[in-house]
Amino acid sequence: MSQHFSRRSFALGLTALGTAAATYPLRAKAAGLRGQSKTLCFVGGYTKHGPPGGEGNGSGIAVFEMDKESGSLTQIATFTDIASPSFITLSKDRKFLYALSEIDDFNKAGDGCVTAFAVDTRTGTLAKLNAVSSGGAIPAHLSIHPSGKYLLVANYIGGSVSVLPIRKDGSLGQATDVVHNTGPRQPDRADDNPPGNFAISDHSGSHPHMIATDPSGRFVIADDAGLDRVYVWTLDLKSGKLVPAKTPYFDMKPGSAPRHFVFDHSGKIMYNLCEQNSKVDVCKFNPETGEISVIQNVSTVSSHFKGSTLAAEILISENGRHVYVSNRLGDSLAVFEVGRDGTLTLQDEVWMHADYGRAMMFDPSGNFLFCANQRSDAVTSFRVNKATGELTFTNHFTAVGSPTTFAFMNTDPEF
Question: Of 258, 234, 238, which is closest to residue 246 (Cα–Cα)?
Answer without folding.
Answer: 234
